[in-house]
Each structure stands twice: as C-alpha cells, then as structure tokens.
Design goal:
Radius of gyration: 14 Å
CATH architecture: Orthogonal Bundle
Helix content: 40-55%
CATH topology: Cytochrome Bc1 Complex, Chain D, domain 2
Distance between the termini: 42 Å
Strand content: under 5%
Oligomer: single chain
Largest sheet: 2 strands, antiparallel
Strand order of the largest sheet: 1-2
Order of helices and strands: HHHEEHHHH
Shape: globular
Length: about 130
C-alpha cells in the first residue's frame, strides 16, 4: 500500500471518530455540565498520551495537550470540552454514530474497540478528558 494512501486513511479514521465524539448527544452534555468530574489520574493521562501517539490520533486531530495539529478531524479541545468520559469513549469506538459539524461520518476507523485494549481505551479517554476540562 502506498504511504500516502495509508496516511490518508489514518487521518480520515481519526477525524471521523473524534467528530462523532464531538456531536453525540442524548443528554450527556447536560449531565456533564451539572455534575463535577473527578480530577484526572496522572498515570492514566501520561499513559493515555502514549496510546494517543501509538494510534496516530494526532495525524488527523488538533489537540494542544498532545502537541497535535492534524487538519482532517475536529479540534478535540474545542469539540469535546465539557463532555463526559462516556461520550468521548463512544466517539472512539463508534465513530460513525454521529459526526461533528463539517465532518462526514466514515472517515475514522471503526475498529478501535478491537485494536485498543479496554484498559488502554480508558487511559486514552482520561488523557483526552484532561485536555478538555472546563
């Protein structure tokens, strides 16, 4: 497979997953605003950043806490601000459920639930949450 094709596929996948996370609703956003969230676990945040890097998330997404400036997916610091962990998790494992404004579904890989171990997924979610707190 050509490197450009692989890179484009990774970027598209990451963008779709984060887009879905950014705009999934169902009352979670309202609950997140009304209930305090616990402080992030430092070890989980550190390990979550490593998982972010290993999965190429920054190739599609802009996310200042990761030093990422991807141009294909939404800026996670803006689109996920105040969202609960459940919303972020679902956006990663079911990215085509909903897309952020201006981003089509189907761009992000649908297999992160199989590729990322459950404990690592939680660390990734914690890393993202730590960077989008109000």
């Amino acid at each position: 497979m050509r490197p450009a094709t692989v890179a484009a596929g990774l970027l598209a996948c990451a963008a779709a997953a984060m887009t879905a996370a950014a705009f999934a609703t169902g009352g979670e956003e309202q609950r997140a605003a009304s209930s305090p969230t616990p402080a992030p676990d430092r070890a989980a945040v550190r390990d979550g950043k490593a998982i972010w890097v290993a999965n190429g998330c920054g190739s599609c997404h802009t996310f200042p806490p990761a030093g990422a400036r991807g141009q294909f997916g939404p800026n996670l610091a803006a689109t996920l601000k105040g969202m609960p962990a459940s919303y972020i998790r679902e956006s990663i494992v079911a990215p085509s459920k909903v897309a952020a404004a201006g981003f089509p579904t189907g761009m992000m890989p649908e297999d992160y639930a199989a590729r990322i171990a459950p404990a690592e997924l939680e660390q990734l979610v914690e890393f993202i949450r730590s960077g989008v707190r109000d």
